[in-house]
Amino acid sequence: MDLLQQLTQYAFSGLSTGAIYALIGLGFAIIYNATGIINFAQGEFVMLGGMLTYFFQTVVKFPAVPAMLLAVMTATALGAAFERLTIRPLKRPTPLSLVIITIGGSIFIRGISMLIWGKDTHSLPPFSGSEPLTLAGATIMPQHLWIFGITLMVIAANKFFFYFTISGKAMRACSFNRTAASLVGIDVRKMVLLSFAISSAMGAMAGIIIAPLTMTSYDVGVMLGLKGFCAAIIGGMSSGFGTVLGGLLLGLLESFGAGLISSGYKDAIAFIILLLILFIRPQGLFSKAQTERV
Amino acid sequence: MKRSIITCSMFLLTLSWSALCSAGQPIKIGALFSVTGPPSFLGEPERNAAQMVADSINKAGGIKGRPLQLITYDTQGDATKAVQLANKLIKDDKVVAIIGPSTTGETMAVMPVVEKAGIPLISCSAGRKITDPVNKWVFKTAQNDSLAVAKIYEYLQKKKLSKVALLTVSDGFGSSGREQLKAQAAAFGIQVVYDETYGPKDTDMTAQLTKIRGTQAQTLICWGTNPGPAVVARNAKQLGLKMPLFMSHGVSSKKFIDLAGDAAEGIFIPSGKVIVADVLPASDHQKKWLISFVKEYQKLYKVEGDHFAGHAWDAMMILKAALEKGDDTPAAIAANLEKTREFHGIGGSFTYSASDHAGLTKDAFVLVEIKNKDWVLVK
């Protein structure tokens, strides 16, 4: 086992975890850009994706694909309901009250899930086989390829939606200036609702594709949510490649840190980066400094 | 005026009534389990088993004709709450003995309280510190980590595998196991060549395992509770790690096999005897109890009884035996608990003495291997 081979393995492990962080981070970024809210319940939708699939597939005994589709649809509906019931009724939203609401929402979702599905960890069957593949001396699971593929697809779809469709453009308009957007006839409320729906669908998708590898339980959302948030911060809360690069970077640093320094510092690495970025480059690593938004 | 006379006489009547009834008064036993909170995987089965024993004792006519009243509180895995609830049990409920709590941290916090009040405590947690040094009032039923470690090392020594890699979870269970794994290594001629940890919520351990693959290690010992070890098993399979893999008794349940899937094949686990009850030799003293316990628990709670439920079952049965031997004053109970000899329970055969309040030897564990998604005893 030479060093080069070890390094390749670290890189592959890092990239595959990073892709997951990126996908979750994008969910944060989309809502932030449309509404200015940092939705701390994002991690819970990742959990819901995994747990709902487990529920539909193992308990209700649907075949895999319909179970996943149903899980994404249910999570999307829950995300929309979350916005409708907790965010919209707020008379005078302040950033602080919104953050507290989303944190409260996440605790609520976690608690209900624990009551419904219990505290056990569950595993899901992989999409296509569990025989590891060898690539340049390193091994990855077929599931990792699914993760890369689906992440790329989601990013592409995202790009398309935000730049080439009316609703996407309207959402971007909301993110630049809400008042101006509503003056030109964009229904800002509808856009906010849509952003919650899209990001919970993405979160659920992330939860589904990682569950066969990492397993799922009612409380997986917390850590994944924080890591996704970290990725979004590194990427400067952009809903494009910034967050994706942020996620990949975070995954790589964690993997190399655990391999070359000590695994004890794995989570510390993520949070030190988060703090450093917030102190030094609050606009994110990849974006140019810009004037204050909102 | 008239009304106050009536009230007074009613009050007197109630007093004399309760005095009359004192002959059949229940024996009050307190129980502290973390039924919710992070250690709920311990507390919930423990509560179930304790209630199951109490109910069956009462159905059979109680202890010396007196029913057993089990008062259970949920500590939520929180040491501060455990102390408050222990005080409540002692001062308000006036219990004569307490079983639980579920975790070592909580037990350590509760110990000064029961010692001060002079109430016997039978803990269901595993930490060695609980009974070493011996506290007159404190006993425990969960097996020491050190016994599980000894079981693994004994096997490694026999197979002449002397270089081990350790991968332990960074919580109380993992660090206590890690301490023991390192402390006992020299005595078995074993050398620890790699020693790393992982976080309880980590979802990918390939980095650590890649590093282990590059060391001289001949075996890997992973110490944790679900789901971490299942991830380790899957990642080890992904990397094609050839060395034998040992897990701790923290994952000796069917759940682990479910989670790890194919990757569980060939993994060794030191385990209490519950999960292999049906394949134990007939000469095993525990076999009869184990089988009846598993059956009864399954009938009531629809899942198989596990080790954790077993800890509470042992605590209740040992307490019952002590109550049958003598008075129900706390001091007499503590003295009789110490006289427990060869009680063949779920966790092992308990023999308490003035210098040993843990009562078990490494025979409480058997080494099992996972083959075809089931347990096989390793001779």
Brief description of this entry?
The complex is a heterodimer of chains A (294) and B (379). Chain A is mostly helical. Chain A has eleven helices and two strands; from the N terminus they run H-H-H-H-E-E-H-H-H-H-H-H-H.
Secondary structure elements and pairings:
The complex is a heterodimer of chains A (294) and B (379).
Chain A: H1 3-35, H2 42-59, H3 64-87, H4 95-117, E1 133-135, E2 138-140, H5 142-164, H6 166-176, H7 178-183, H8 188-214, H9 221-234, H10 241-261, H11 266-280
Chain B: H1 2-21, E1 27-33, H2 40-59, E2 68-74, H3 79-91, E3 97-99, H4 104-117, E4 121-123, E5 138-140, H5 145-158, E6 163-169, H6 172-185, E7 191-198, H7 206-213, E8 219-223, H8 228-239, E9 245-247, H9 254-260, E10 268-271, H10 287-301, H11 307-325, H12 330-338, E11 343-344, E12 349-350, E13 366-371, E14 374-377
Parallel strand pairs in B: 1-2, 1-3, 3-4, 4-5, 6-7, 6-8, 8-9
Antiparallel strand pairs in B: 10-13, 11-12, 13-14
Order of helices and strands of chain B: HEHEHEHEEHEHEHEHEHEHHHEEEE
How many strands, which pairing sense, and closed or not: the largest β-sheet of chain A?
2 strands, antiparallel
Question: What is the third-level CATH name, the topology of chain A?
Answer: ABC transporter involved in vitamin B12 uptake, BtuC
Query: Strands across the major sheet of chain B, in which order?
Result: 2-1-3-4-5
Strand content of chain A: under 5%
**What is the CATH architecture assignment of the largest domain in chain B?**
3-Layer(aba) Sandwich
Show unreliable segments of chain B.
Answer: 18-23
- So what's the CATH class of the largest domain in chain B? Alpha Beta
Structural class of chain A: mainly alpha
Main beta sheet strand tally, sense and closure of chain B: 5 strands, parallel
- Top-tier CATH class of chain A: Mainly Alpha
Radius of gyration of chain A: 19 Å
Counting DSSP H or I runs of 4 or more residues, the number of helices of chain A is 11
> What global shape of chain A is seen?
globular
CATH fold node name of the largest domain in chain B: Rossmann fold
